[in-house]
């Protein structure tokens, strides 16, 4: 018996139909999805098959591409290597010709060869390159020898002594410039005139060549050769220049045995040579040394000190020998001459001899200046004492001027010829006006000592009239000499007037004694006449 289900309401039936329809649609969708999946799986299989079929072709294409790249790189490397060989070939020809014809090309060739060495040394992939490296290194060795020889030849060719006439002419222009000689120099010296005060030690066109060669030598590690070649060449030229000026080495015995005139000539030569050496030669040597080794890692101060040392020592030792020789009053003016020159050069010495390697020469020059000042002061003191102690027995029978008076006055006049030098000398211990007053004190003391000495000499006369005539004549000589010389500015008008009175006093004393003697003689004659009259 078939079971009968209850009838659903009308709305629920509609919903049931929709559900059934949706179920059928889902089932249909699943069937479609499965079909699509199957189709896609079939497509993927076909794609995989295609990829599998073309993969060998892709591999071959990649291999061909890599092969082309390797070939390109190999070609580039080969071209680079061939280029290096071409550089070596071209550079070799330049190196073998040497630097004399074209220094710039030679130095460029050296730089190119160094580049070749770097090229093969930096890339370790290059094999069997020892041969070309050996060739290049041999060329670099040859280039170093050739550039060194070129430097030696240039230094030898252009390191010649300067002619004495040219050096004296340069010194004269230096002195004119320093004294501001407006007629000879003008208010503003021209560049041509300033250039004329420095002789050409090395032509200006050669200096850049020497600089470039020196730079190359130092880069090649040949500093010692560069140093030695330059020092020896310039030292020889400097010493020959001084020798041609007449500078010679003298011992203390040589100086003491030398006649005064010969010594004066030698010192005159020395003062000029000292000025020429410092103002002209050493100033020029320092300048070209700085120019040639500018910007180069090179001890140019030490090189300059060694090339100049021998000449400076010779000059200073001569003056030092004179200063240490036996002292005499006449040598005072030689000492003042040398001292004046050394003091004048002091500022230039400090500039030229700067740096630790030149400190010994600078110290020697400054010590010589001090030594000359000390000796000069000692001689001046000795002279003052000699004036006080002079006991010459020369008796001027007619009471005329004593030779000692003439000698002392001449000495004082000579002192005043060195007035500015003496004031500088006194400034070592005094200042400004004190130095000027010190000079005046020294001159006054000498004059007073002379006057005292003359008073003593006047007492040697038994005749008092002659004694007064002697003082009158000698003091009158002193006053007249002072009035007609620079001494009047030092001693002053009061000194002159005071000593004129002393001269007049002695004249009056002479008259008094002379008239007294006349009166005595007259009285004697009258007495004789009276005796004769009485006898008659």
Automatic annotation (TrEMBL):
Keywords, alphabetical:
Exocytosis, Protein transport, Transport
List, alphabetically, the InterPro entries matched.
Cullin_repeat-like_dom_sf, Exo70, Exo70_C
GO terms classed as biological process: exocytosis; protein transport
Q: Which Pfam families does the entry mention?
A: Exo70_C (PF03081), Exo70_N (PF20669)
- Organism superkingdom: Eukaryota
Gene3D superfamilies, alphabetized? Exocyst complex component Exo70
Q: Which GO terms describe its molecular function?
A: phosphatidylinositol-4,5-bisphosphate binding
- Which residues, if any, are the signal sequence? none
Q: Name one GO cellular component term.
A: exocyst
SUPFAM superfamilies, per the entry: Cullin repeat-like
Q: What residue stretches are annotated with the Exocyst complex subunit Exo70 C-terminal domain?
A: 270-518
Q: Which PANTHER family match?
A: EXOCYST COMPLEX PROTEIN EXO70, EXOCYST SUBUNIT EXO70 FAMILY PROTEIN
Q: Which family does it belong to?
A: Belongs to the EXO70 family.
The task this protein performs is described as: Component of the exocyst complex.
Designated name of the protein: Exocyst subunit Exo70 family protein
Species this protein is from = Panicum virgatum
